[in-house]
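Write out a record, focusing on structure:
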Amino acid sequence: MKRTAFWKQAILSAMLLAGAALGWQNRAELGALWASFGAEPGQGGGVVSTSNAAPVIVDQVRLMRDDLTFSAIGTGFALKSVTLRAPSTGEIVEFNIAPGRKFRTGDVLLRLKDIDQRLAVALAEARLAQATLAQDRYSRLQDSGVAAAARMEEVQTTYEVATIELEKAKADLDDRVLRAPFDGVAGLATVEKGERVNEAEVVASYDDRSQILVEFDLPEALLSRVSPGLAVSASTPSMERQRFAGTITAIDSRIAAVTRTARVRAAIDNSDDKFRPGASFALTLDLPGPTYPSVPELALQFSRGALHVWRVNDGIAEPVELRMVRRRAGRVIVEGPLDEGDAVVVEGTQRLRPGIAVNVLNARGDGSS
């Protein structure tokens, strides 16, 4: 009997020791269970004791703009650019085109031999003068009732034909001269003075280089961030370690279905004539974006296929589901129901459950202890 009682006591003691050890290992969970009932272990009610709350460190939600930087490569071309061609067939008797030479609108670039055309103009002027005298004379006779109506119509027709012939002769004479179509700079010529050219034969290139235009492709996803007037920074291999300012001037009205990009044009000032059409340019655009909440990377948790953070509200932890927008400088820009200044847990998340009480170790909520 005594031996049996001893073994019973030993077994009971072992069970008590095992229960105490198990309770010690799970003391945090037991504290949270008691907290859910609004009381500490061993008490019937009252305020939750911070000794049983989960210790955490928090940081504040900050607002951050989702700005992006986009880089592209493009080829520059002149603000205006044409290929000069011979206005008609003939021998060049005056030639002013030289590489890099600047011209004003209407300046003579080349002149063809025009003796026949000048004679044609003189002849047309003489015929028009004769037709004008005849018209005036028959007009006076008709007023007096002497001239016949048929003869007057014939004289009038002769006058109109002479006028048209003079206009044509002047146009033919003008076609013997090639003039600058706008303010610009001539390129290398393909002909010389004294050479005979055919109508529409290429003479030289001609550009307005006051601005250099650069076109590049912008992804469809960024199109809403770009508008005319947006600043652009550019560089070119011909001038290393230098940056030049420009602006967006035009955006294509269509998106290419194959590449899902839109053509965008930027203009760079070239009043000092540093750049040449055809040069390559590396463009950088700072694209402004909307403002979102941002949280420290440590605050972001992933479970059950979704991202969330633990927000502390009146000493209670609550999960807030979010969508990540972008990582930026140690923080994560997110989209979700967070406000600036909200406290989110950055350390101690492994013990958190919905509705659990927490003890904020850094009471200021700024991430400092």
